[in-house]
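Need the bound structure for nicotinamide-adenine-dinucleotide, inputs here:
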Amino acid sequence: MSIVHVSGRFDGKTALVTGAASGVGRATALRLAAEGANVYALDVNAEALAETADLAAGLPGKLVTRVTDVSSRDECFAAVAAAVAEFGGLDVLGNIAGIARAEHVLEVTEADYRRMMGVNIDGYFFLCQAAIPHLLERSGNIVNIASNAGVMGLAYSVVYTMTKGAVVQLTRSLAWEFIKTPLRVNAIAPGGIETNLVANYRIPEDVDWELVGRATTPRPMAQAEDIASMFCYVASDEARNVHGAILSNDTGLTAG
Ligand SMILES: NC(=O)c1ccc[n+]([C@@H]2O[C@H](COP(=O)([O-])OP(=O)(O)OC[C@H]3O[C@@H](n4cnc5c(N)ncnc54)[C@H](O)[C@@H]3O)[C@@H](O)[C@H]2O)c1
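Answer from helper R.:
Posting the output first, comments after.
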């Protein structure tokens, strides 16, 4: 799918986007730059992040990359400071980086548990903490990528669902705490998206497939650009009335 331009929608704006080396993060970073934003693009994968920078060449907005592990509080604060130093301020924070695993809950190792909490919760929280003072200066906004897994139970993905439920509550509670300011905070809750995350998702053979089947729909999976499109709407001034929302983008998965 080619990148859609809403010409100039983000002219003069700066966005910090995580997970920008792949999938939703890359599609969002490129679309923001296509629509005029200067983008500070973070990811832990240096090689793939450099590919994102190559893809952004020639777009109206400037895209600058920084290799960052969002599970580190220090790296989150340093990345926000560097983005503000680079572009003079911050208008949009896109918390997109995430990891997922499928496994029997009794087989989750402590290392895997802590890694998922670190990337999917700590990263989101500390980037919000670091970014909010700058976003307040520019009447900016935060878009967190949650998941259908944050609003429904999923067998064999207990830890992942815990992290995405936390993203939902992070979004709502921040929205309420800052409701008397111009800051907007929202989340998008996608269903299945054809990205590396799904390609690498290995469900153990010995699970109860009836339980797994309850978490699918007959409709085709989304493309990363479908989520980037909603992201750019929510992050833009067109969505000025949207605050504290958990926006489904899941082909009806959570409707039934
Ligand atoms: N793909 C799906 O079906 C699906 C569904 C619902 C929600 N989501 C969510 O969408 C978001 C994007 O996922 P995606 O599908 O594009 O996956 P993806 O694997 O294509 O991209 C995720 C990116 O996050 C980066 N990342 C991982 N750990 C990191 C860390 N510690 N620091 C910085 N970057 C890190 C990866 O390197 C990768 O580039 C995630 O939050 C995911 O949970 C995905």
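Comments: The first strand starts at residue 14 and ends at 18. The first helix runs from residue 23 to 34.
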